[in-house]
Design goal:
Blueprint (H helix, E strand, L loop, with lengths): L2 E4 L5 H11 L5 E5 L12 E4 L8 H12 L3 E4 L2 H9 L1 H6 L3 E2 L4 H8 L1 H10 L7 E2 L2 H9 L7 E5 L9 E3 L2 H10 L3 E5 L4 E9 L6 E13 L2 E8 L2 H14 L3 E10 L2 E8 L6 H6 L4 H9 L16 E3 L10
Parallel strand pairs: 1-2, 1-4, 2-3, 4-5
Antiparallel strand pairs: 6-9, 7-8, 7-9, 10-11, 10-13, 11-12, 12-15, 13-14
Helix pairs in contact: 3-5
The structure holds adenosine-5'-diphosphate and magnesium ion.
Length: 320
C-alpha cells in the first residue's frame, strides 16, 4: 500500500503519521515544487514537481502514481483539491484512488460566498454574508446589519487580507482596492475547529474531533483544547452527510450565545490535525482501511476532553 502526498510543504507530522500507519508495509511518497519543503525529507521517497498550475502538471503526478504503484493520493493545499477531484477517473485508470471530496464540493469550499449560500439554503446557522456592498449598506440603513463586520476575499485562505471593519468608509476603501471581497457579519463567540473523517465506502461520518481555539496566529490555530458536545457532533454529522463530503475535512465553527454557526470547510487535513491525532483520532488508519476496501466503524468522539495543543517551531538543517 503506497500513499502519495502532494504539496506536503511543512506538514512533516502528516508524513510521519502515514509512515507510522503503514508500519513498513508500503511507502509514503511526497511531492513539492521546492526542495526546501522540509516534509519531503521525512518521506520514503520524494519528487520535486512543477507548480500545480504549470501545463502538464497532472500528467507528471499520474506518471508518479503509475511508476510508484500509488494506491491513494491526497493534497495538503486548497487549490489542488479541485484539480485532483476533476481528474479522479484518470487516477482510477492508473490504479490510484483520490482521497477527497467531489469537484463541486471542493469548489464550493474554496468560495466562502458559495458556501454561505448553500448553508442558508439548507437551513444551517452561518454568518450573514454579502458580495454586493450596496445591499449590505441598505441592510445597515434598514437596521438588519451592523458594524463591525469582517471583510475578506471570498476565495481567500490563511487569513490573508482579512479585516475587521467598523465603518462604511473603510468598506468603500477596501472594495476600491480589490475585487472578489465579501462582507460578513461579525460572529462574536468561541471559535471551534473540527477534524472529521467521512468513510469513503459507507459515506458516513466515522470520526469527529472538536477543539476550542484559544489562540490563532497567521491563520493557524496555535493553542487549543479538546472538548466534546453531542449536539455539536449531531450538527456536524448532519451537515457533512447532507453536503456529501468524503475523506478528511476540517471545519471552522463559531459558538455564539449557545448556538453553533458553520463558518468554513477545508476538504483536506487542516494545519491543526496533529491535535486530533495525538488525542487518538488516527485518521491515517481510517484512510488505509478504506483503500484496502474495508469500511470503518463509527468512533465519533472517542478522545479525551481537556487535552491542550501548544504549537512550537521545529527546524530542519540539511545540505541539499
Ligand atoms: N465573520 C467572522 N466573525 C468573527 N471572526 C471572523 C469572521 N470571519 C473571519 N474571522 C476570523 O478570521 C479567521 C480567518 O477567517 P476564515 O473565514 O476562516 O478564512 P481563512 O480561509 O483565511 O481561514 C477566522 O478563523 C476568525 O478568527
Ligand atoms: Mg479558516
Amino acid at each position: 500500500m503506497n500513499i502519495l502526498i502532494l504539496s506536503s510543504g511543512t506538514r512533516n507530522k502528516v508524513v510521519q503519521y502515514f509512515k507510522a500507519a503503514l508500519a513498513g508495509q508500503g511507502k509514503v511518497i511526497c511531492t513539492d515544487m521546492s526542495n526546501l519543503a522540509p516534509s519531503i525529507y521525512e518521506a520514503d521517497k520524494f519528487y520535486i514537481v512543477p507548480r500545480m498550475t504549470a501545463p502538464g502538471y497532472i500528467d507528471v503526478i499520474l506518471d508518479i502514481c503509475k511508476k510508484e504503484q500509488v494506491d491513494g493520493v491526497l493534497s495538503l493545499i486548497d487549490p489542488e483539491l479541485s484539480l485532483l477531484a476533476e481528474n479522479r477517473d484518470k487516477f482510477k485508470a492508473v490504479g490510484t484512488q483520490v482521497i477527497g471530496s467531489s469537484y463541486q464540493l471542493c469548489e464550493m469550499s474554496l468560495d466562502k460566498f458559495q458556501m454561505f449560500r448553500w448553508l442558508t439554503e439548507h437551513g444551517y446557522r452561518c454568518a450573514q454574508s454579502y458580495m454586493d456592498k450596496e445591499i449590505f449598506f441598505a441592510d445597515v440603513a434598514a437596521g438588519k446589519a451592523k458594524y463591525p463586520v469582517f471583510v475578506k476575499p471570498a476565495r481567500g485562505s490563511a487569513s490573508i487580507a482579512i479585516s475587521k471593519v467598523y465603518d462604511r468608509e473603510t468598506v468603500e476603501l477596501l472594495f476600491s482596492h480589490s475585487d472578489g471581497l465579501m462582507i460578513q457579519e461579525f460572529l462574536d463567540g468561541q471559535e471551534i475547529g473540527a477534524d472529521v473523517y467521512i468513510d469513503m465506502i459507507s459515506r458516513e461520518v466515522v470520526s469527529i474531533f472538536t477543539k476550542k481555539k484559544i489562540l490563532m496566529r497567521a491563520g493557524e490555530t496555535d493553542k487549543a483544547v479538546s472538548f466534546r458536545d453531542e449536539n455539536l457532533f449531531a450538527l456536524i454529522k448532519q451537515f457533512v452527510e447532507e453536503a456529501g463530503f468524503l475523506g478528511q475535512i476540517d471545519i471552522d465553527i463559531f459558538q455564539v450565545n449557545g448556538e453553533y454557526y458553520i463558518s468554513e470547510v477545508n476538504p483536506r487535513f487542516g494545519g491543526g490535525y496533529p491535535h486530533a491525532y495525538e488525542c487518538g483520532c488516527n485518521h491515517m488508519e481510517l484512510i488505509l482501511n478504506n483503500l484496502r476496501g474495508k469500511a470503518n466503524p463509527c468512533r465519533i468522539g472517542m478522545y479525551e476532553e481537556g487535552i491542550c495543543m501548544m504549537k512550537y517551531n521545529e527546524v530542519m538543517v540539511k545540505k541539499i
